[in-house]
Design goal:
The chain has about 300 residues and is α+β, with helices and mostly antiparallel strands. It has seven helices and 16 strands. Bound molecules: 4'-deoxy-4'-aminopyridoxal-5'-phosphate. 4'-deoxy-4'-aminopyridoxal-5'-phosphate binds next to helix 6 and strand 14.
Length: about 300
């Protein structure tokens, strides 16, 4: 596989208040964020030049930092403007935006009281690779050996870099065994989420059941899909779900900024048949994310 490394590309990255050439967006090896995982980030999608739910993402970035005990030295409005600036500067039409904030290098130890807080924002083109037909075949998943931690063990509501250690390990093991992704249970043994996405099941009662996000990220896509499902007449049940209850589910799907709405074909021994609910919500989500950019196209008079 030929990869285009992320540190060797053309374009601009916003760093601590200004755009810098892509290859110059560097930091020192003695950075607290690297050694002690004192970093928080976001993942945002650009549809037709517009960032979907930008302010919700920026507010979550601020909250993630506060949960780790630091304050990002830019307001939500300033970060929103910087994200838009990065998208425009790199001519992104359909892409991804990655803001990240971290503790710098003034102190190098567990304590980092004096460290400057940095913020960088990168964006790159990332169109949808899979057709809806291909996605309807569904993901093959295994159940991870790692569990989402107890909120007393980690700041589970923060989109903190450190929480992704077990996600990468779970995803690597799944891929090594021929699966697309892993389902993580939580510290009590309930169904939690995938390695970078939330999960929903269509149960025998005809309702959509999704785990209570009490020890993992309450995704922005998750909340969007709950709203869309209700508008399409589906009842939502948020509760603790035991893994063995998956035997009753007829459809299942993941939600997330990157995966959008993606059907699941199997999780370990449990099989699902992507059908009407997956299809309805995939279409509804697609229409929702394109709404803003269609409006922009109308205003400017340009074709979408
Ligand atoms: N859980 C995890 C672990 C994630 O990384 C993500 C992606 N940010 C999600 C859930 C879904 O969140 P969102 O819908 O806000 O992208």
């Amino acid at each position: 596989m030929s990869l285009m490394p992320f540190d060797d590309r053309d374009g601009s990255i916003w760093m601590d208040g200004k755009l810098v050439p892509w290859r110059d967006a560097k930091l020192h090896v003695l950075t607290h964020g690297l050694h002690y995982a004192s970093g928080v980030f976001e993942g945002e999608r650009v549809y037709g030049k517009e960032i979907f739910k930008l302010t919700e993402h920026t507010e979550r970035l601020h909250q993630s930092a506060e949960l780790l005990g630091f304050k990002i030295p830019f307001t939500v409005a300033e970060i929103d403007a910087a994200c838009d600036q990065v998208v425009a500067a790199n001519n992104i039409v359909d892409g991804y935006v990655r803001p990240i904030a971290w503790r710098g290098s003034e102190m190098m130890g567990v304590s980092a009281q004096q460290n400057t807080i940095h913020l960088a924002i990168a964006a790159w083109e990332w169109p949808a690779y899979f057709s809806p037909e291909a996605r309807m075949r569904g993901l093959k998943m295994r159940i991870s050996d790692w569990a989402r931690p107890d909120p007393r063990t980690a700041p589970t509501r923060s989109k903190a870099a450190g929480l992704y250690m077990i996600c990468t390990m779970s995803k690597h093991k799944a891929e090594a065994e021929g699966y697309h992704d892993a389902l993580m249970l939580d510290w009590r043994g309930y169904v939690a989420e995938a390695t970078g996405a939330n999960i929903f099941f269509l149960m025998e009662d005809g309702k959509l059941h999704t785990p209570d996000p009490d020890c993992f990220l309450d995704g922005i896509t998750r909340r969007t899909v709950i709203d869309l499902a209700r508008r399409n007449g589906y009842e939502i049940v948020q509760r603790h779900i035991k893994p063995e209850e998956m035997v009753q589910a007829t459809e299942a799907f993941l939600t997330g900024t990157a995966v959008e709405v993606t059907p699941i074909a199997s999780i370990g021994e449990y099989q699902f048949t992507p059908g009407k609910v997956c299809e309805t919500l995939m279409k509804a989500y697609d229409a929702e994310v394109r709404r803003g950019s269609d409006k922009a196209a109308l205003i400017t008079g340009s074709a979408a």
